[in-house]
């Protein structure tokens, strides 16, 4: 095997190991089923003029300290699912809820980026 080919494989493995990869390259079951969109996400896609979930495709429901949560890359931290929220059984449905929660949190006044914009924004 050529040195260039070995380096490429190492890069792909590294990306997978550190979580900076597109999961559905390896597992087609991770491609979002658009039939499971929540009403909020349908409206969001309509307003944005998107045909797919674009940047939300690799957002999935995870767990932080045993509680369901979604990871927000902008703050490099977990956003916990509200207490008492009943989650569906299927992973695809749970992932749609995670996407909705992430978008709603990023648009809320409670998101840490809002405070940064207010403190450091020029306009």
Largest sheet, strands/sense/barrel: 3 strands, antiparallel
Order of helices and strands: HHEEEHH
The number of E-state strands comes to 3
Any idea what the shape is? globular
- Order of strands in the sheet with most strands: 1-2-3
Give the termini distance in whole angstroms: 55 Å
Number of domains: 2
Total helical elements? 4
What does this 3D model show about the protein?
It contains four helices and three strands. With 123 residues, it is an alpha+beta fold. The protein has two domains: 28 residues; 89 residues, no CATH class. Strand 2 and strand 3 form a beta hairpin. The radius of gyration is 17 Å and the shape is globular. The mean pLDDT is 79.
Any descriptors?
single chain; 123 residues; alpha+beta; 2 domains; 4 helices; 3 strands
Topology:
Layout: H1 3-17, H2 39-48, E1 61-64, E2 67-72, E3 77-80, H3 91-107, H4 112-120
Antiparallel strand pairs: 1-2, 2-3
């Amino acid at each position: 095997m050529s040195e260039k080919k070995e380096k490429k494989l190492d890069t792909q493995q590294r990306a997978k190991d550190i979580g900076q990869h597109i999961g559905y390259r390896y597992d087609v079951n991770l491609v979002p089923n658009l039939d499971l969109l929540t009403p909020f996400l349908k409206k969001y896609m309509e307003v944005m003029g998107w045909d797919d979930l674009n940047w939300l495709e690799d957002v999935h429901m995870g767990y932080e300290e045993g509680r369901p949560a979604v990871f927000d890359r902008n703050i490099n931290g977990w956003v916990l699912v509200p207490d008492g929220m009943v989650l569906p059984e299927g992973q695809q449905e749970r992932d749609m809820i995670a996407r909705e929660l992430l978008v709603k949190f990023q648009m809320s006044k409670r998101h840490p980026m809002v405070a940064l914009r207010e403190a450091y924004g020029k306009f």
